[in-house]
Amino acid sequence: MVTANSSQGVSPPVVPHPQRHPQTQQLAEHGAAGEMELRAAGREGHQQHRGQQQQQRQEVFVSTAGRELLAGFAAGAANVTSGYPFDTVKVRLQSAAPGRYRGALHCATEVVRSEGVRRGLFRGLSSPLVGGTAETGVNYLVYSRVLAALTPAQLTPGSPPPLECVAAAGAVAGVALSGILGPTELVKCRMQQAGSAARYPGGPLQCLREVVAREGGLRGLTRGLGATLTREVPGNALFFTAYEALRRNLPDSSGPPHGSSSGSGGAARPERHWLEEAAFAIFCGGAAGTLMWAVVLPIDVAKTRLQTAQPGSEWDVGLRKHWAMLWREGGMRSLYAGLTPTLVRAFPANACQWLAWELAMRGMRGDGEEQ
C-alpha cells in the first residue's frame, strides 16, 4: 500500500506568497518611482554642470584669445610705425647696386633730399601696416595658445614654462605668420626701392595688381615665401626665448604674484608698478629684437633680393644661390648689408612692440581675473 507521505508521485506542498497590504504596495511603488526620478534628476544635473563647465572654459578661451589677438594688433601697429623709416633705409641698402650709397646715414639723407620724408622714408607704409598688424596679432595669439598647450601639466602653479617650450611655440608661430608676411613684405620691399614712386604712382595697390597680373597670380605673391619661413621660424623662436629669458633674470620687486601679461602659459611674475613693467618691457623687447635681427640678417638680405628681383633675372634664384652670389659680390659686407639701420631700428621698434603688448594685456585684464 502506498502511503500519502511516499515519495512516489506525490507533489510537494505549495507555499503561498504572503500578500502585501494594498497601501504598503502602493507606497513601495511610489518609492521606486521616486528613486528613479531622483536618479534621472541627478544625471540631468550632472550633465548640466558639465555643460556649464565646458561653456565656462570656452568663454575663458575666447576671452583670452581675443585679448591676445587685440594686444597683438596693437603691438604690430606700434612696431611697424616706429621702425618704418629705418626699414626703408635697410631695404634701399640691400637692394641697391654696390657703391650706390656710402652708408646708412648717406642713404637716409639721399632719400629725404630727393623724395622727402613722407614720400621717401614712409612710402608704402599702408601695406606693412595692415600686414604687420595682422601678422603680429596672429603671432602672439598662436604663440600663447601653443605655449599653453606645450606647458607640462605637472608644472608647479605659478612656475614659468620651460624655455624649450617657449622656443617651440615661437617656431610654430613663425610658420603661421609667414603666410601673412610673405605677400605683404613683397609689396613693401618693391615700394621701398629707389624709383618706386615713378614705377608705381598708384601706390601699393598698383604694385599688388602688377604682381598678380604679370608674375603668375598666387605664384608671384608667394615669391620669397620659403625665404620668409627660413627667417621667421628660427628668428621667432629666438625672439620669444630671449625675451622670456631676460624677463625672468631681471630683479623682482616685492609683492604678490600675478598672472603673466605676456601670455606665457600661466607664468607668474611679481606685481610691479606699471612704469617699472613698461621699462622692463622696453629693455627686454628691444634687446630680444636686436639679437634676433643680428642673427637672421643674411637670410633677410637674400629674401629682399629675391622679392625685388624681376622674373627671369640673375637674382631670380633660390636662397643658397643668393648667398653664394652675395659672397662673391662683397663677402660679409654684402651678407650683412643694411646692418646699421636694422639694428638701430630693431631696439626701438621691438621695444614699442612689447610695450604695446604688455600694456594692452594689462589694460584688458578683467576685473575678476587674477592680478
TrEMBL record:
<dbReference type="InterPro" id="IPR050567">
    <property type="entry name" value="Mitochondrial_Carrier"/>
</dbReference>
<dbReference type="InterPro" id="IPR018108">
    <property type="entry name" value="MCP_transmembrane"/>
</dbReference>
<keyword id="KW-0472">Membrane</keyword>
<feature type="compositionally biased region" description="Polar residues">
    <location>
        <begin position="1"/>
        <end position="10"/>
    </location>
</feature>
<dbReference type="InterPro" id="IPR023395">
    <property type="entry name" value="MCP_dom_sf"/>
</dbReference>
<feature type="repeat" description="Solcar">
    <location>
        <begin position="161"/>
        <end position="249"/>
    </location>
</feature>
<dbReference type="GO" id="GO:0000064">
    <property type="term" value="F:L-ornithine transmembrane transporter activity"/>
</dbReference>
<dbReference type="Pfam" id="PF00153">
    <property type="entry name" value="Mito_carr"/>
</dbReference>
<dbReference type="GO" id="GO:0031966">
    <property type="term" value="C:mitochondrial membrane"/>
</dbReference>
<keyword id="KW-0677">Repeat</keyword>
<comment type="similarity">
    <text>Belongs to the mitochondrial carrier (TC 2.A.29) family.</text>
</comment>
<feature type="region of interest" description="Disordered">
    <location>
        <begin position="1"/>
        <end position="31"/>
    </location>
</feature>
<keyword id="KW-0496">Mitochondrion</keyword>
<feature type="repeat" description="Solcar">
    <location>
        <begin position="276"/>
        <end position="363"/>
    </location>
</feature>
<dbReference type="GO" id="GO:1990575">
    <property type="term" value="P:mitochondrial L-ornithine transmembrane transport"/>
</dbReference>
<keyword id="KW-0812">Transmembrane</keyword>
<feature type="repeat" description="Solcar">
    <location>
        <begin position="63"/>
        <end position="149"/>
    </location>
</feature>
<feature type="compositionally biased region" description="Low complexity">
    <location>
        <begin position="50"/>
        <end position="59"/>
    </location>
</feature>
<keyword id="KW-1133">Transmembrane helix</keyword>
<feature type="region of interest" description="Disordered">
    <location>
        <begin position="41"/>
        <end position="60"/>
    </location>
</feature>
<protein>
    <submittedName>
        <fullName>Uncharacterized protein</fullName>
    </submittedName>
</protein>
<keyword id="KW-0813">Transport</keyword>
